[in-house]
Amino acid sequence: MQETEAQIRPVADECLTTFAKVADAASLKLQDLRARSGPEAVVRNTWNETAGVDNHRRLTREIDGEYRSLAAEPAIARVLVVDEDGQEAIYYFARAAAPPVTDERLKFASYRSPVGRLAELDVGETFLVTRGGEDVFLEVVERARFQPFLSNQEWDGRNAVLEGEAYGPVTVDSLRALLETADRIDETALDALLSEESDAANVRDGVRRGVVLRMGLRDQPVLDRYQGEIFRMPLRSRLLILGAPGTGKTTTLIRRLGQKLDVVHLDEDERREIRSSEEEHAHSWIMFTPTELLRLYVKEAFNREDIPAPDDRIRTWTELRGDLARNHFRFLRSPTNRSPLVMKNDAPTLADKLELDQRAWFEDFDQWQRVTFWEELRDAAKNLSEHPSADVASLGRRVRTIVDAVRMPQAGAFVSLMPVASDIGALVADMKALTDGKIRGALNLQVNRDREFLDDMASFISELKELPDDDIDQDADEDEDENQPPVGRAAAMAAYLRSMRSLARARARKRNVSRRGPTGRLIEWLGDRTMSDEDLQEVGASLLVQTALRSFTNPVRRYVDRIPARYRRFRRTRQGEGRWYQADGFALTDIHPHEVDVILLSMMRATNELVTGARSLIDMETSARPTLERMTQLYRTQVLVDEATDFSPIQLACMASLARPDTRSFFACGDFNQRVTSWGARSDEDMKWVLPDLNTRRVTVAYRQSQQLHNLARQLVAVSGGSEDDAVLPDFADNEGVRPVLARGLENNQDIASWLAQRIAEIDANFDDLPSIAVLVNTEDAVRPVSDALGDVLADYNISVEACHDGRIKGRDGAVRVFHVEHIKGLEFEAVFFVSIDELAKALPGLFDKYLYVGATRAATYLGMTCRDDLPASMAPLEGLFGEDWS
Ligand SMILES: Nc1ncnc2c1ncn2[C@@H]1O[C@H](COP(=O)(O)OP(=O)(O)OP(=O)(O)O)[C@@H](O)[C@H]1O
């Protein structure tokens, strides 16, 4: 070891000198920048143009941030390379920005730059660079990674891992302490003996694993060669990263996002493709996590990468789905939206086991709705072309030629319909003025007869509000129904117009209006205070023509925005055929969240096809524009999904639809063995369905767990029939850990708490500070009683316990945290305890093995399980892997 220490001391010395040099240079630049960026400097530099000032401020803010980061963390890696001519070069890599330093002997670069790849390669590996137009191979001769740390105005490098051709890898706790050992000359024999011990603890053979002390994704400034390759792939990639628990998928995802947000590291084509300013690009991303808790867990990692991550950028699907359906695509009922659809989490609408067939379900609907829409358009065109009025028939013939030319909705056909649409719009407006005039005339008559009429009607319709709008008139046009006042005389007038139109249409078709819904009830209430039969016939006939014509006034909007209405018809049809849906037991207006996903995907895909297939629809002033712009406003340059296998293929496809079409940048990571939702994606085929050109990559080095826990995890997969993974342990010197432990027959919370407390005390004895510990329980209701019982016992050790309800709070570091197992996807702890696993097996037979696997793989070193009775039968073969305690 002494020989190694002698070899690495010059490296340590150079590192510390370089840290100081970079940090000083960054601090100077920072001072300079701040001195120059006062208001006068801004005015002088930009001639006081607002855009210029904003731009200047942003640049100043960004550069300020970069220098501040460099002053706090001057470098994360050092690599010595040699080229084919034997020329050596030393590179220092900073996390994000390139350090503002020049040095004859040293080269400085950002880890995010292409040459940053050197920091990921092992000693002996080569990397191709282009120098003066020629390809040159660089071979890595020495590599060091470290965490710079300023203590008492002196730089140190903590947790450094150094490796050269002739030494290492070694882990050095402190580079400064390493240098100080060389300075000791006049030691007494006692001092020498003591310092021998501490020197040995400072420099140790091999790469060491850090203890998990806090609840948050650990910092991993330099990735391994496989992760690095993925993180550097072009922005326009569509990637799925699969890997066993702890293989660094989330880590890679966040590092990649950081790199791709930094426009400096995008190539020319990518910069063109993002089509936005730098500032927009910095905000144009969205990441999905399956749980609120994972969002909290990763937030700090975003801060380390200097990525502002407000809540609207890291989202759960549940949250975004509600927002899209209610506020953007507007097909769920709200105080301002008369839509009949009400989303209910437990709406019993869907057939059993539909989750196994969800792709076919979606495709059936999507195909049905496209065909239905076009057939209706074709029928409308035919009817118009045969209409007695010459004006109408001539327009009808024009649209018929276009519609008959294709069999399904197509971007090109919509473009061709646009010029006719405006002629039709003018005709409809004239016809509507006439029919509205007639209905208003009738209303006027009633008001003249009875001054109270409007007020009486207003109070009657306010009572109807609660009635489900089951019978919303399929032919009532959105254009007629826009901006409906909710209360008062204006609302009464709108309701009168609406009901007269329904009545008139029904008369013209020789049908009756349904009595069940609000419109039918109002008509009943009106009695003979409607229009004359003759007028109803005449208005009805005109309205039917208007409806047929309206199919063409804004065909894009009708195509996309009527998808929810078509969905209701589809559901009724298939329900009758005994497919996809329960035969009965739910209201026509109830809709399950998975059905909302289907509608959203259909609407988003339909819009995307038009945006990409016919840019002219959006580039020009057409009636289609607002419908398409609604989608373009939702686009993000980067869409990222963590724990992708917890989302259904339909949800994943919705997320992929949010990726800006120019780049279609999509990055998902997950592990099929860790799928804990019955609707989650189950296979490669599911993922290929989401995006056919998805490029799947695997990461296989499992960094989180000790040898014993890694082994247990693999056995768990084997006994549950999951797909075997190819994960291997890293070359850590301390993979050896302790056996997982098991307690049987713990029936009540007191017994459970006292067993947990003994194990926690055993862990605590090994550390100065309590590492991060999670206790997982089977239900939300068990969180409080288990925390209270454990808190009572652990109070004797001065260890506090925190109940983390609903997975909405992270809890405090230093306390033992209690979670419902449902929320712990993606997290990592030094120790995990699973309470009453046999009860979980009984409660969730279908997902038990998945939850067990996910729970057990959250632990880095210590894993404990309790059973109320005994191990579930499926786990019996693994009994021999468990011990009883860690004393
Ligand atoms: N290249 C690496 N070297 C050392 N440790 C790493 C490396 N990459 C990731 N890790 C560490 O491995 C642990 C697990 O990382 P991460 O949570 O990203 O894995 P994951 O694959 O997303 O896990 P899971 O599937 O369980 O969600 C973290 O502590 C992380 O710091």
Automatic annotation (TrEMBL):
Record-linked Gene3D superfamilies: P-loop containing nucleotide triphosphate hydrolases
Binding positions for ATP per the UniProt entry: G243, A244, P245, G246, T247, G248, K249, T250
Molecular function GO terms recorded: 3'-5' DNA helicase activity; ATP binding; DNA binding; hydrolase activity
A GO biological-process term: recombinational repair
Name of a matching Pfam family: UvrD_C_2
Keywords recorded for this protein, A-Z: ATP-binding, Helicase, Hydrolase, Nucleotide-binding
Signal peptide positions (record): none
Family matches, as InterPro entries: DNA_helicase_UvrD/REP, P-loop_NTPase, UvrD-like_ATP-bd, UvrD-like_helicase_C
Domain (UvrD-like helicase ATP-binding) ranges: 222-706
Protein name: DNA 3'-5' helicase II
Organism: Minwuia thermotolerans
